[in-house]
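Sample entry was shown:

___
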Amino acid sequence: MTRVHRIAALALFAAGVAVGAYAAKKLTVSTAAFAGQEPAAAAEALLGAARQLAGDGSYENIAVARVYYLAGKKAEGREILDRVAAGKTKAGDWIRIARVYQRAGDWERAKPLLDRVVEMAPEDEDWLAEIGAYHLLAGDRARAEELFARSLALDPSNLRNTLRMASGYLGLSPED
């Protein structure tokens, strides 16, 4: 066996060990988490697994927090959202967190986060339309129409954003 073959074999072996170690650490969820359980116990077991699956991902943790928060377990959801917010947070994280609060009817928590998104991403026409719809739902038509105008100035042919705007006027969430 030549030196090149030995190096290639060693590299292949090391890659196999790394893949095996990763696969061994990867959490899996089984039907034992919910089979035969009362709904509350099944949900709690699945949420516990989801927390582990989320790891350090901001998007993933916000998704877990959303379920807690909207299910009425606001303290648990808020703890996760606060942990995400304490890290390196981007505009996409802020809008996801704000959506949780808005969906739960907590406009006072959602509004400053949405304002932060507009500040951080002033030319994101999708977010401008969505955030405008949230303002409309909260009764601030002037701010909503300002954000709608900014969105349209950036992309006047965007079907999805047009529907977001229409949704707000109909009292629907732009996410529905």
